[in-house]
Design a protein that fits this description.
The two termini are 22 Å apart. This protein folds into two domains: 3-159 and 297-347, Medium-chain alcohol dehydrogenases, catalytic domain (Quinone Oxidoreductase, Chain A, domain 1); 162-292, Rossmann fold. Helices cover 22% and strands 26% of the residues. The strands form four sheets. Strands 3, 4, 5, 8, 9, 16 and 17 form a seven-stranded mixed β-sheet that branches. A six-stranded parallel β-sheet has the order 12-11-10-13-14-15, with helices on one face. Strands 1-2 form a two-stranded antiparallel sheet. The chain has ten helices and 17 strands. The protein binds NADP nicotinamide-adenine-dinucleotide phosphate and zinc ion. Residues 42-44, 47, 160-161, 164, 184-189, 207-209, 212, 246-249, 251, 269-270, 293-295, 332, 335 line the site of NADP nicotinamide-adenine-dinucleotide phosphate (NAP).
């Protein structure tokens, strides 16, 4: 039987989020039902609610940093058991047959992966509804295990902010000896600092907010640069091997490109919209590269959770109630969260 779910979403780009009810599907044989205990607030949730990227299907119920307890499993599920603590990130389904899925890159599924919210389900055509809800039904492959002993209340942001930063660091071999910089100290950026340090890199934080300099050091960065200070930027030209750029809006990248040394690479994860052009010479001279990275696959997400459990890495969070979500969005826009909001669902949806 389908179940009635309670959640918070919005009907239009200029409307606040409000309480909504909707149906969650009956379990398919390979589905897992999860009672959600915590959900993180990613800047992508806000972008989607406000239709910043176009393509939002209203009403939208966001949330793709999800932790909870398994309450039921379909007949064919063997990997998960009722009562387990589990986590769900940005995807809930993919074809699982194409080359990308078979290689663990479900995010690039040739059929198009089904994202946790605002995506059409392959089978029934309904639009997926995310984690700002009391429960969710997800295909078993897309459900990760929260390692034993982890503090469940702080895990949620790892499912997007964690994997989106872990994946490019792994792809480009960040480790001991890497001079790495992170641009933008927000949800993604603060995880990038922690993960880069844990992988052995020497990490510098590049921020627009002078008061975050001390925070960057506490997160493990050896140095910080205020990006609006031309002298500081000039002094750092050619200093880095790898830059992870998490700025959430379109911006000029030349100033950051010049900070890369020989064969250095900047990976952009934040700005999805059209960007201004850059000067070709800034790539050609010093053999620099610029690229992007999208979330990460499911095997890598589990690897990231296991890595964080082993190294005792958690996001820095501010826990809120579901009915504080609109206030949280306004604060996120004002760059006023250190460094991720997590909604405690047990306090009511
Ligand atoms: P966030 O918490 O709002 O952090 C973004 C940080 O960027 C801010 O804290 C601020 O740091 C800096 N910033 C903000 N506006 C800026 C501006 N106009 N110019 C320069 N710096 C600015 O956001 P988030 O949740 O980390 O997400 C970051 C972006 O990644 C979002 O666009 C999100 O949609 C995207 N995202 C992408 C993926 C992917 O798969 N690639 C996955 C998840 C999220 P300072 O104060 O330090 O300057
Ligand atoms: Zn996200």
């Amino acid at each position: 039987m389908p179940t009635t779910a309670k959640g918070w979403g919005t009907d239009a780009p200029d409307q606040p989020l409000k309480r909504m009810t909707f149906e969650r599907r009956d379990l398919r044989p390979n589905d897992v039902a999860i009672k959600i205990t915590y959900a993180g607030i990613c800047h992508s949730d806000l972008h989607t609610c406000r239709n910043d990227w176009g393509g939002t299907r209203y009403p939208v119920i966001p949330g793709h940093e999800i932790v909870g307890k398994v309450t039921a499993v379909g007949d064919e599920v063997t990997r998960h058991r009722v009562g387990e603590t589990v986590a769900v990130g940005c995807m809930v389904d993919s074809c699982m047959e194409c080359d990308q899925c078979l290689e663990g890159w479900e995010v690039f599924c040739r059929k198009g992966c089904v994202q946790t919210y605002n995506s059409k389900d392959y089978h029934d055509g309904t639009v997926s509804k995310g984690g700002y809800t009391d429960h969710i039904v997800v295909r078993d492959h897309f459900v990760c295990k929260v390692p034993d002993g982890m503090d469940e209340s702080r895990v949620a942001p790892l499912l997007c902010a964690g994997i989106t930063t872990y994946s490019p660091l792994r792809q480009y071999g960040v480790g001991p000896g890497t001079k790495m910089a992170v641009v933008g100290l927000g949800g993604l950026g603060h995880m990038a600092v922690k993960l880069g340090v844990a992988m052995g890199a020497d990490v510098t934080m590049i921020t627009t907010t002078p008061s975050k300099g001390q925070d960057a050091r506490e997160l493990g960065a050896s140095d910080f640069i205020i990006s609006t200070d031309a002298e500081q930027m000039k002094a750092a030209v050619t200093r880095f091997d790898f830059i992870l750029n998490t700025i959430p809006v379109s911006h000029e990248i030349d100033g950051y490109l010049q900070l890369l040394g020989r064969s250095g690479r900047m990976v952009i994860v934040g700005a999805l919209t059209p960007m201004p052009g850059f000067v070709g010479m800034n790539l050609i001279w010093w053999n620099r590269a610029v690229g992007g990275s999208a979330i990460g696959g499911i095997p890598e997400t589990q690897e990231m959770l296991d890595f964080c459990a082993a190294k005792d890495i958690y996001p820095d969070i501010e826990t809120i109630r579901m009915d504080q979500v609109n206030e949280a969005y306004e604060r996120l826009l004002k760059n006023d969260v250190r460094y991720r909001f997590v909604i405690d669902m047990e306090q009511g949806v």
